[in-house]
Amino acid sequence: MTPDRIVGIDLGTTNSLVAFMQGESPVVIPGEDGVNLVPSVVALDERDQIIVGNAARKYLIETPERSVYSIKRLMGRGLEDIREELKLFPFHLADDLQAGEVLRITLGQKTFTPPEISAFILRQLKRNAERFFNAPVTKAVITVPAYFNDAQRQATKDAGRIAGLEVLRLVNEPTAASLAYGLDKKQNGIVAVYDLGGGTFDISILKLHDGIFEVIATNGDTHLGGDDIDNLLIKIAIDDILGDANLDVSRNGEIVATIRKAVIEAKIALSSESATELDIELPRGKRYQREITREQFEQLIQPIIDRTVGPCKQALKDAGLKPQQIDEVVLVGGSTRIPKVRALVEELFQRKPHTDLNPDEVVALGAAVQANILGGGSEATENMLLLDVTPLSLGIEVAGGVTDKIILRNSTIPASATQYYTTQIDGQANVAIHVLQGEREMAKDCRSLARFDLKGIPPMTAGMARIEVKFLIDANGILHVSAREQRSGKESEIEVQPSYGLTDDQVEGMILDSFDYAEEDFRQRQVIEARNEADTILAALEKGKKSPAWGNLTSDEKKKIAKLEKALIQVKSEDDHSAIRKAIELLNQGTMRLAELMMDTAVSTALKGKTMDEADMGEAPGVGHPVAKADFK
Amino acid sequence: MTIESNTSSLATIGETTSSCWSCGTMRAVQFCSACGKVQPPKPVDYFTFFALPRKLHLDTALLEREFYELSRKLHPDLCARADKREQEWSLEQSSLLNDAYRTLKDPIRRTEYLLRLEGVELEEQSKAATEKARSTGEIKKQVVPPDLLEEVFELNMQLEELRAQKKLGEDDPALVEEIGKQKLELEQKQDSLAEELKTYWSNWDELVDSGTEENRRKIRDKMLDLLNRRSYIRNLVRDVSEVLEN
Description:
The complex is a heterodimer.
Chain A: E1 6-11, E2 15-22, E3 25-28, E4 38-39, E5 41-44, E6 50-52, H1 54-62, E7 67-69, H2 83-88, E8 105-107, E9 110-112, H3 114-133, E10 139-144, H4 150-162, E11 166-172, H5 173-185, E12 189-196, E13 201-209, E14 212-221, H6 226-245, H7 253-269, E15 275-281, E16 287-293, H8 294-306, H9 309-319, E17 328-332, H10 339-349, H11 362-374, E18 385-387, E19 394-398, E20 402-407, E21 415-421, E22 431-437, E23 447-455, E24 467-473, E25 479-485, E26 495-496, H12 504-546, H13 555-572, H14 577-590, H15 592-607, H16 612-615, H17 625-632
Parallel strand pairs in A: 1-10, 10-11, 12-17, 14-18
Antiparallel strand pairs in A: 1-2, 2-3, 2-4, 5-6, 5-7, 8-9, 12-13, 13-14, 15-16, 19-20, 19-22, 21-24, 22-23, 23-26, 24-25
Chain B: H1 46-49, H2 60-74, H3 84-105, H4 107-117, H5 127-136, H6 149-167, H7 173-210, H8 213-245
Helix pairs in contact in B: 2-3, 3-4, 4-8, 6-7, 7-8
């Protein structure tokens, strides 16, 4: 039996990657286009096919209402959580959405939940990995921001399931990054990981000790990242355009998307240039042009990047450390390419941060390392073990709307707490429990995770029941609750019903739905591949017709080839990949003699003292045949 | 606090004779010393989990080493390929390990935990107070330690005044400085209480093996009183910080 191939996936706000451990070092698996980064963009094309990644990017501008980006911002959140988000992002929510319900996004005529959209991205990464291994991939480690709460983690796990992946572990992004760094370094000390990505910010402080990566404190903001810089620049451009050209483009999705593309390019340019120009075409022949200097840019983004300071200080305080006690600082996330961000980190921790690994890839590489550890380890990961923490305190609402904290933030996970409950009135059969996550004193200021109903309590006089409720946060940072009534003689299990997120049945349904898209996806890919191959053989035939060998064919042979060529061109425009394959096969057979003659000509030319190149024999149709044939299977 | 378990359910273990479910060899409590398999968890107290006597002076460096060693045996990452049952045990065992380490490594939490094992509860964590608060809707309140009464009264007045000033958008620097000074004094008092606690630890540790119940009770009560005062001061410091920072 071959060992399980477990991949590591960085499911990012802006870009996603898949990596795996090749021998003793992690490598990123590129997509079909040879690019490592898969943009986290999903679009529905005019034929209702799901398009993901680079290919989906053009739809952001052409058909913004049929495309979506930064979906990670909506993972595990409800309508009531995202008011601010909706002002800044062109998310098209379904019209009939109710408060408390899992969000649904409209793409064309269809609606999808955030986990389903994330699943489309995951499935693309899965396919890339399967193409790379030429074998199925069903197990993965997926990274999440360290500061993700329970609902956001659960949503990510659901996305994995919908994509057909068994999620063996959710790993915190900064921790994953430290694994990738730790692999070469193998040293002891205190490391701070500053991770500013497209949509999230995390700071984690770790203690490295003989291969154990122990997180001592983490903090962050799940709604702070490069996106916020983009939105600020977009807003300035829209205001400028309104002022200069008296044109309100804020409701024009296409123009806003064009502006977004331009400001992102400008932002990236300003990491290496001292100035850059925005140049955007507007309707009615107008243009928006503006120069931005790095100095202006830095002034503009200062308030945004300053928001990372508080979490850093809190993490240091929680770890009981002074900045001078940090031995190494590691930068992660594309936004840490901004020189001003680097300067801020250097000032905060009073040392130069490490940037030797690509900040876009380091999280995926670390996920691959963790995947290797879970798979049983290898020489490179021997003795490596990750001890992570829960980023937020877990609490229960008690009388007066106060949060009673039962597991404190920065507790090493798995962690557990047991609470005892009783009944207030005679014969009471249910007890309601409100579970919260957060640091605030009052329940209303914390994130409500679930309102559990303990059901099926045996009838007893008030106060007699003794219900033991166990809260356990697993190594993924996900909460499990179990309850037992202890006084009723038999230790009856009590039904626990969560009130938030997707139910198991819903996820099952989505897995089934996703097969429709998966099949369509697959068929479409086969058609595209067959068409590409047809183009290759047709081009080779054109060259063959110009070679001296062509003259040696009989007119019957030429006629037959022409017929086969016409047939291939005909089926190529249709959507039946097996028909295209068949026509290719027939044309290949029909041109066999031409290929042989071309080889002969080439050989005799070579014998006359010319090289094959000079002879310009062209590419004989049959020569590429074996490779093409291998693809048929 | 991490747990609110009732002391009666905490069984002490003497089952060194039980054998590994997988290979049958005699085993350590959490994992088999012969084949390394994680064992089903037993309801043990945190001291027993680390095979420690119920003493309060504790070598935390040694505890940390032990924690790392046990993590390498019990963590779910190392059991990802084991059968479902062993994965479940690994999850429970390592959460017990983490809960135990977190409690024992911290001097205050360790003392509070030991007192609870001994059947005494801090005012703040008292079940009776919690249940009363739950049924009446009142927020749990602590009694002011008598020796702090005057000081606390004074400080609360000043805090009220500063809050009122801040509402109007102005604050008197002299008042801020005065409150800051008091906060510092309270923090120093907290530190000196922590030092004082250590002398009680020594008393306790001597009595664990040989002392009479009567003598142990005396020390327990002293530690309880000290922790109650300390938690009162800690809450006060938190209130002061809140007002100063807002």
